[in-house]
Automatic annotation (TrEMBL):
SUPFAM superfamilies reported for this sequence: L-aspartase-like
A GO MF term: N6-(1,2-dicarboxyethyl)AMP AMP-lyase (fumarate-forming) activity
Pfam families: ASL_C (PF08328), Lyase_1 (PF00206)
EC number(s) per entry: 4.3.2.2
Keyword terms: Lyase, Purine biosynthesis
Protein's name in the database: Adenylosuccinate lyase
Keyword flag Lyase: yes
A GO BP entry: IMP biosynthetic process
Domain Adenylosuccinate lyase PurB C-terminal: 329-449
High-level lineage: Bacteria, Bacillati, Actinomycetota, Actinomycetes, Micrococcales
TM stretches of this protein: none
Domain Fumarate lyase N-terminal as annotated: residue spans: 14-308
Amino acid sequence: MTALPAQPLSPLDGRYQSAVSGLGEYLSEAGLNRARVQVEVEWLLYLTSHSMFGSSPLTAEQTQSLRGLYIDFGQADIDWLAEKEAVTRHDVKAVEYLVRDRLASLGLDGIAELTHFACTSEDINNLSYALTVSAAVREVWLPKLRGVIDVLGNLAVEHRADAMLSRTHGQPATPTTMGRELAVVAWRLERILTQVKGTEYLGKFSGATGTFAAHVVADPTADWTSISREFVESLGLVWNPLTTQIESHDWQAELYNRVSHANRVLHNLATDVWTYISMGYFRQIPQAGATGSSTMPHKINPIRFENAEANLELSSAVLDSLAATLVTSRLQRDLTDSTTQRNIGVGFGHSLLALDNLTRGLGEIDLDRDALAADLDSNWEILGEAIQTVIRAEVVAGRSSISDPYAMLKELTRGKRIGRDDLVAFVEKLDIGDDAKSRLLELTPASYVGLSDELVNRLP
């Protein structure tokens, strides 16, 4: 059998690449290496701008050229690093050699020994991951989540008054509206989005074991903690003053737990909408040319929600593992985080793919108001809650002498299907005030939705 040409192993880099390609800008190996070059270059510029060790500030033109190493980072640099790493067997050292090589071509050999000065690989790596992950979240993942929330919010407003039967424990229960149910999910996601936006992306820059030992030996007079803090903050990150060789990854655990939480709320949405489709509450809008089944021509399968469900599970599996393992490092350093962090993009990729499916799926359904109405009209017994509550209020007010209203309605309704006429006859005989009796006689399952319409206004 002829061997296949080289193929992507992950579906994120094959079948689904177009849906998640935005993450590759930041969470790919190339994106990480570009960030590493950025950190190395900015550290060079910091040292020279402060005339450390007798160096002189670079000219504006030299600064622009040096920053061009990461601003214009491209395929030639990617290939150069691949070749160099094949020799060095060390990815960060290859980046250092790239910067040194480019300094020579820019005529800046004089500052070459300031490249990677007093740095351990993790000084570069932790800042690079913080930069790439924060950019991926801000530029790619959050806007996609924002889009789903906005779609849900619009649907909530559109269907705010569309009464439907609730099902608690899968059984008929006090009605709600479809809009309010969608608003519940939008509200939950909005809170998580705010928490994710508030993530602190921490960075350390303190040498081989976090002690600034090499720094102090090189210049005992410098305020190295202030230098470290100023440099980390110049990259838009939050300085972590107390670490081992590695930044402790606590911010990553916090972020991935929040994203995984969002995944699970979205999973709840996917399974609920799937269920509403199976109940006939939502009709699926046929898409031109699409096939639902290879043998049953009539079918329109809810594949967007099924795909979202599966990808959310995969995403949370990866992100939960990252959050659980990254916070542990043996003594001052072990290398377990090196491989695991390379899968950050996988975790976000499956979540992003699910968000794409949900956005599409929510745009391909239409509410069947007749189905909602028919379901409500078949379940008048749900008004038992309303009737017994009104009776209890009337007893307290002294307008009724009925004892144990709950038991009375339980006897009438539990495990039984009763219709409008049955309830009207029952209410008309009740020992309650005229106003209360009138309210109950006017009540229908479709009108027994409380403040559902108004509650949609609570969405931001």
